[in-house]
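Fig. S4 source data, part A: sequence.
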Amino acid sequence: MPKLELQAVRKSFGDLQVLRGVDLTVAEGELVCLIGSSGSGKSTLLRTVNLLTPIDDGAILLDGTDISLPDQDPRPIREQIGIVFQSYNLFPHMTALDNVLLAPRRVHREPDSSLLPRARELFVRFGLGDHMHHWPDQLSGGQQQRVAIVRALAMNPGIMLFDEITSALDPELVGEVLGVLAQLKRDGMTMLIATHELSFAAEVADKVCFLHAGVILEEGRPREIFENPKEVRTRSFLERVR
């Protein structure tokens, strides 16, 4: 059984069809990269998986259970599906540690006796051990993005979604954030990533999906997509961005 499955997912905003019947499966521990031009539907797809954007038709299954049914409480589901955006969205009046502790304290009512050691371990694991008590404006963009990832991981999600998380970073900071994703991959985290970092997708992804006009036009192993794409539009996209 797939960890995550999208079945004929559709989403429109007014007359604009953004997702036009997306089918996708993500296995446990798999890293799937979504590539495609801006406006192809990558971000909307991620937001539907986290239930931030309700779908118009189709189904989204998590561990075989349809989580996209109307009128259900999305909060327990979002606790299982973490999402990180390109904007860090850290609270500027809180230290990095307090940003990370906020949700587990409020949502899970988790005591600091168990929460603090896990948070410290996450900070150390991702090279932030010396920055736990810094304010966001004392951190670089790459450090803030890593804090945002640690904040999502502190909720112990089963799946992580990443939406172009390196696009707002200076080039020299991109590598440190991609290194965190590679570490999560080694740890066995299930991930769905929208990215323009094609070299990262080629090296680390288990599967690459090319989105065009709201559908997954082509998917396969990285070598198949990047070295021998079958679709004309996939080839055209890769020629433009390389």
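Fig. S4 source data, part B ends here. Strands lie at 4-13, 16-26, 31-35, 57-62, 65-66, 81-84, 159-163, 190-194, 207-212, 215-220.
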